[in-house]
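Notes from hallway chat w/ T.B., transcribed later so I don't forget. T.B. wanted the structure written out for a chain they're using in a teaching module, and asked if we could keep both sequence and structure tokens in one place. Agreed to drop them here.
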Amino acid sequence: MKLKNLFNKLRDFNFKNKRSKTLFFLSLILILASAVATYTYLSGSKQGKFEPKNDELKVLAAQDETFEFDETLANDGNTLNILLLGYGGAGHSGGFLTDVIQVVHLDFENSKIAFISIPRDLWVQLPNGTSNKINQAFSLGNKNDLINSGAKVSAQMVTAVTGLKIDKFISVDFVGFKRAIGYELKNIKVDVPETLDDPWYPISGKEQDVCGKTPDEVASLSSQLSGFQLEQQFECRYEHIYFDKGINTMEGGDALAYVRSRHGSAGGDFDRSQRQQALLLGVRDRLFELETLKNIPGFFKQMIAHTDTNLSVDLIKQLAPKLLEAKDYKIINVTLSTANVFTSSKSSSGQYIIIPKSGENNWAGSRTFVQAELEK
């Protein structure tokens, strides 16, 4: 259901006192902010819902109908696994490819929150029998219910990789993030783990600027070069961004640039995953630093205006007492990468892919690694 409808129902829910209501909303927003923040490094998608192009519909296929999300909490409510999915949406080629796949593991019994990042280039066997990158899973939903059915396919793949049963999902494209950080939170403080120096950060609106080159020059360059080598020939499309190691105060635009940067380090997607996690901690700290939000309804609705989820009102009511304690939970960041359980490879068509060190579709290592990290 749409979260803005969920909010309207929760607004009239009887909490014990004003402070409990405020803390509950702050805790809930923390989870939602996680979903928004994990997607912010993507190119800003246009606001509004969308339908895929005709050529995109060709890749849609029926998912495994035996999979269902849990309607109630698993393990007597001691844990909850929420799948966060970020996708391009309107105005983007391959708008249903998820460039962000992250699990929020809430362990209420042991007071822990774990953020588990999964690389988009991970090579998996999809439910339709083909092998492809895991970011294709979301596009395999039923075209009559793209978001919910696509999330089911993604959840199946994530469960295979991590061993965690996915209970709920939140999917999001880029809407209102800069405004939420800049206006609602005023700014956030992010503890940057490593200096980020990127001279090739894209300037919004200049993606097609020819930088003074003639059509013949553009055609010649495009025939000889591709990828980042081609991009470097159009310097006017980019600006230089820099974030020093340590505490950085970021407004909306700064936060977006920090997590979206693609050329500021050698770590690629794995480095971006770590930056996303650092930003989440900054969002969490700022939310709880503010004793109250003067305009909770406005802030909440702005953050989730274009978010889809299968979280229900009843479940949120059930979670409310536990979420009130989220401020003091231990944070665990888990990044599945070539530094631990995966290795780089190439597909039969020459694509760059990531596979388990133990061999394609052998997820024993990643499952063991995730479980060990969660027990720390």
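Follow-up for T.B.: The chain has a mean pLDDT of 75. Might be a good example for the class.
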